[in-house]
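Ticket opened by: R.M.
Priority: normal
Category: complex prediction / small molecule

The reporter submitted a protein together with zinc ion and asked that the result be attached to this ticket for the collaborator who will pick it up next week. Submitted input follows.
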Amino acid sequence: MSDKKPKSRKSVNKHEKVRISHEMSAERKKAVKDAMKDQEISKPEWDRINVSSEYKFNRKKVKPGEIRTIKLNLLKVSIGDSWPTSVCILHGKRPGPVVTIIGAIHGDELTGPSACSHLLSEALTSNGGPLDPSKIAGTVRIVPVVNTPGFKSNSRYFPDGRDLNREFPGRRTSNTTQRVAHRIYHSLIKDSDYIIDLHSAAKGRSNMPQIRADLTHSSSQRLAKSFGIEVILDSKPPKGSLRRVTNNLDIGAITYEGGGASTLDHESVQVAVNGVLNSLKTLHIIPGSPNRPRFRLLASGSTWLRAHGGGLLDMLVGAGSFVEEGDVVATISDPQTPGKSIDLKTPITGLFICSATHPFVTAGTPVGHILPITKSKNLILNQCDDESKLIVNGSLGTPVWREESDIDEISIEGEWIDGNVDSEWQKEWSLSNTSNPNLQSFELAAEEEDD
Ligand SMILES: [Zn+2]
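Result attached by the on-call engineer:
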């Protein structure tokens, strides 16, 4: 495997302040700063004195201090499958905001369903646990699997072949996915104060834990920072996405990405659980102090690493690795020309936020998505393991506690190609199941973006 030479580990002065905010485009920088100012809210933010009243969802009632799972039918039909999804409601004894946490809007992305299962475990929700409903101010709604049919068939899509996260706000009388989007929009989105949407990378790649948010939207920026992880991509939400329609309602929304489709990445799940609890603590919905990262990378652009030959790709680094310009990060060998292979070197120093996991490449195939890191290199290296992988806040044990003012914010300049974080990734490779299992074949599906 990797025979990279060990990186130098220069010690970093803990009080070193890295401020390179001038690197973001002046216009966007101003918009992000203005959004930051809007966060200065007068206290008390939520009503802390009164007692909650009953919470109603889908004509069912949840008492203050109670957890109740209520089924929501995604389709209203008298015959055929209505695809019920479970909405778990933790209704606090004190009033506060409504936060909705959503998993598996893409049915094959399992980080969300797994993280939601952990959040709803007895260890967290029982008496004295961090999500004990008697201690909650507000209402936490957890929907582990919103795309029920996609989840059951290990597919990103709805049975009509559409991407639910591109059909919002949907229409009641239109196609199947639009009807479902309309139902979710009116039942789960419109009455939320904050939405956390949990994803993984699409098939053929893996994401390091990262948040995506429009940082010019004030409450989304606040929510993004509250999650307590290092990598935040400032990205406008894709058209028709849950994040887009939520922001249009002026509701704070973030997308969390971690791991890849059809696999369980335990580190990504752990970071998601820790991040959701951090956000709920920051919003004063649950008691306790959130843990915060040593630094935050606020990125508005990236660099792509592409294969310069075809064959079988063997990645030597994975998502989350820190690489230095000229490092060999992958090899490509062509079984048709035995004995020959080529090395792929990274063109820049930076952080691999997403790495290819699919071994078939042709010249030009993107294999790595890198955030360029210049001045703050030592800050990041200081937090890497022996394999040069960034230890994400919340991925190991209990993170140290620090003040918001102790976090270094590092802006990474640039633009996303076509304004979209994932625009350069391959179209999805999907394994289509035929009635004869011996005839399984790989097919290219529609253009994929992760969130
Ligand atoms: Zn997704």
